[in-house]
């Protein structure tokens, strides 16, 4: 999708406002070189102050982007493009972020076992003064897991830095019966929408 503008994008200083190697790998798999820069934003927004899950993840992603951009500018490393994302697992009206303990991971996974849930990933792409925000959501259906399976998975350590307490691209994917929507939204970066945004941002430069 990005081939017509790839020569333009390869000249840009692209920064991913994240510490996630998964997101970095996704971006590099489509042919872009990115600099990984973890945001220092505390991610302490009150989800109850937002009208929707989409607004919450988009605002969190925006704050990550702004913090990273401002810090890099102060360091003299001015980015051309900053990409930020935030992923949240929801069950009904409840929001599940990253578990803070093994006990919390167990509670999350027990709640998700044998049920469907929705994953929201909000993305912000900032290029100079242009900001584009969007959210994708995907429904994920877990098979039934017994207590030993859940504890065994937690013992791998994988759940502890993942929204909802699981990584679909890792061992956690073995619990997933089916996915309705964009798989990459669950991984943490919806590639189709991201590529569409980047293409629209730079397609006017193709003939320049």
Describe the structure.
The chain contains 7 helices and 7 strands. Strands 1, 2, 3, 4, 5, 6 and 7 form a 7-stranded mixed sheet that branches. The protein is globular, with a radius of gyration of 18 Å.
Radius of gyration: 18 Å
* Tally of strands: 7
Please state the overall shape, judged from the principal axes of the Cα atoms: globular
Low-confidence stretches: none
Terminal-residue CA separation: 20 Å
Q: What is the element string, with H for helices and E for strands?
A: HEHEHEEHEEHEHH
Strand proportion, as a percent range, falls in: 15-25%
Summing up helix and strand content along with how strands pair, one would put the structural category as alpha/beta
- DSSP helical segment count: 7
Largest sheet: 7 strands, mixed
GO molecular function: nucleoside triphosphate diphosphatase activity
InterPro entries: ITPase-like_fam (IPR029001), Maf-like (IPR003697)
Pfam families: Maf (PF02545)
Cofactor: a divalent metal cation
Which secondary structure elements does this structure contain, and how are they paired or packed?
Elements: H1 6-9, E1 14-16, H2 21-29, E2 35-36, H3 53-74, E3 81-91, E4 94-96, H4 102-112, E5 116-127, E6 130-142, H5 147-155, E7 176-180, H6 183-187, H7 191-202
Helix pairs in contact: 4-5
Please summarize what this structure is.
Its cofactor is a divalent metal cation. This protein is an alpha/beta fold.
